[in-house]
């Protein structure tokens, strides 16, 4: 009974984190038509910034400030580089790839110069063991799941019921028509790019104390998994991204009970990729 | 005149290790990674399919060759054949899923394939040797009337050169044939190509499998000359995280000119030179330079 309960909790926690990442990617794709290959870099930046700011602001303060900084960086990058060139898919992809490589290297360089080390241990922000039968579950993870779910809910409300969300949906559906009715399309796009980057950074900042370590390479694998989730969910479909994120997390965590963690992750990735054989446009994608 | 220049260049490259032995090692790297870049050029330059996971087929070729030697005691040519077959099989499976998706879907699947294979290679370390890798003794290269030990630097040099020339020959024949025309038609306008009666799925799958086989040939030759394979060959973005990075085929194609015959090989040469130059002075500069290459190429891309 206990291992099942613990696995279920883990699946929920990671499901919420993957959903944050995948929904951010899908938002960006919807508004700008680019696949954000720098998403893993924003995730890593969020984790590193929140680690660096924790001594001055405290963990919860850093958790709020780090995503904002990364969001501003994202919005700043989007304006000149991505938006104007988003027409040709391959060009935009290469641009994102270049941004990813350069950002990654700049972060590595500055971390090396500032601290002389690339890997840093993260102290747990609170100790709150929750007893489940004879075992204990880290209460911080429960808080992570709650924070991530609250943000996702807020996003859903913003998307569905506010003027801003209405603009976002209009830009996603048709750039030209949105411009015609007076929506400042480039500004909305930059905002969405920043919002997506901030969501990735929030996921990174929340994950730091779970993985107990931050380093400049921590985003690479995260990027690959979250882009797959987004594609399988259907590019631009927030509901699809959310559903596949949760599905992936359940598959991975429950497969880990049966097999080596690496094989479990590979199995979960293959399983969700096979969905593309039935629906090449993804679960929530338009036919 | 053009033919004379070509012959001269070929003779120069062929005689190089006899004149200057130090260039032989450099040449082997150039030929093997040049062949790798050539394979990506078939996909990206000719067919317009951007793959970020071409290293998978290189690694499959390397492992196919290594396994056939370790478990099957295969001879040299059998090992090369096994490597290419492994890569072709892998490319057929992945291509079957990936080429039917949109342009972004294709990129993502090729990338994630690398991650999946890397995780599998790490998880099944009893078969793959894991991160430490495994070494083996490569069988001698047998030609009619000749037995050449692969441990000899000259043999390795001419083997790699032969593989590259073979790849160049295939790429040349394809670019001049109707098949090459079909590839370019799909690259330039998929819908128009379909309207002209091309089976776009089949054309893309053909390009993907052919490129996979070529990368597998490069991998098999690499493994047999190094007598070593490791799981890290599968690692996604390996060229950007390792300390002594191998030339990344995509950057080589972008540096040379995509869709030309020799561009990717020239790009590989530039990358190798850059690594040599910056590796000793300022290693992070190499990775930074690669990012700048990609960004500038993408911003000033004409197509």
Structure write-up:
The complex is a heterodimer of chains A (287) and B (303). Chain A contains ten helices and four strands; from the N terminus they run αααβββααααβααα. Chain A has 287 residues and is mainly α. Chain A is globular and about 60 Å long. The mean pLDDT of chain A is 88. Chain B has one domain. Chain B is built from 14 helices and four strands. In chain B, the strands form two sheets. In chain B, strands 1-4 form a two-stranded antiparallel sheet. The longest helix of chain B is centred in the C-terminal third of the chain and has 27 residues. At the A-B interface, α3, α8 and α10 of A face α5 and α14 of B.
Largest interface: A-B, 49 and 43 residues
Compute the number of structural domains of chain A: 1
Count the helices of chain B. How many? 14
Can you list the strand order of the major beta sheet of chain B? 1-4
What is the N-to-C order of secondary-structure elements of chain B (H for helix, E for strand)?
A: HHHHHHEEEHHHHEHHHH
Report the radius of gyration of chain A as a whole number of Å.
19 Å
Strand content of chain B: under 5%
Name the shape of chain A in a single word. Answer: globular
Radius of gyration of chain B: 19 Å
CATH topology term of chain A = ABC transporter involved in vitamin B12 uptake, BtuC
CATH architecture title of chain A: Orthogonal Bundle
Largest sheet of chain A: 2 strands, antiparallel
Instruction: Name the overall outline of chain B.
Output: globular
What would you call the structural class of chain A?
mainly alpha
Spans of chain A with pLDDT under 50 lasting ≥5 residues? none
Helix content of chain B: over 70%
How far apart are the first and last residues' alpha carbons of chain A, in Å? Answer: 42 Å
